[in-house]
């Protein structure tokens, strides 16, 4: 019998290439057809291996979901950037490779991020998603989030509505 290990841990510089590959695959899957092609491509290309290597050193915390040595997903988190909201913590990003979606890894990664923010003294949490991203909305609602605030995000002159989900 083979044992499969799943670990959510802080990323290290050696994870940079795998995180970059995960970012590329997950963003293409999540945003193709939602974000215009050119800005999406530029956003993905900007985050190559070197970018992620620097990201492992902060200021945001970068967590990875490591499945038997494969980086299946990642989350970035830190202080809430929307100062008008009372929640002190924010999950900036949470993405999984498409082949690892739907098996509970997102839930595990989200809960570890939430636990870590709480251990750092953050009261409450916010996470944002595009309004047209039904998968993201369904995920945040399944985690108990309530969408209570809206905003806009600009992608080369195309404005898309985003939703802010909060947890106490």
Topology:
Elements: E1 6-10, H1 16-31, H2 37-46, H3 49-55, E2 61-67, E3 70-79, E4 89-96, H4 105-119, E5 125-130, H5 134-142, E6 146-155, E7 158-167
Parallel strand pairs: 4-5
Antiparallel strand pairs: 1-2, 2-3, 3-4, 5-7, 6-7
Tally the helices. 5
Class inferred from helices and paired strands: alpha+beta
Instruction: Report the CATH superfamily.
Output: Gcn5-related N-acetyltransferase (GNAT)
Task: Tell me the domain tally.
Answer: 1
Helical content stands at 25-40%
Uncertain spans: none
Structure commentary:
This protein is of the alpha+beta class. The protein has one domain (6-167): Aminopeptidase. The chain contains 5 helices and 7 strands. It has helices at residues 16-31, 37-46, 49-55, 105-119, 134-142; strands spanning 6-10, 61-67, 70-79, 89-96, 125-130, 146-155, 158-167. Strands 1-2-3-4-5-7-6 form a 7-stranded mixed β-sheet, sandwiched between helices. Strand 2 and strand 3 form a beta hairpin. The model has no long low-confidence stretch (mean pLDDT 96).
Task: Give a nutshell description of this structure.
By secondary structure, this protein is α+β, with helices and mostly antiparallel strands. 34% of the residues lie in helices and 33% in strands. The longest helix is centred in the first third of the chain and has 16 residues.
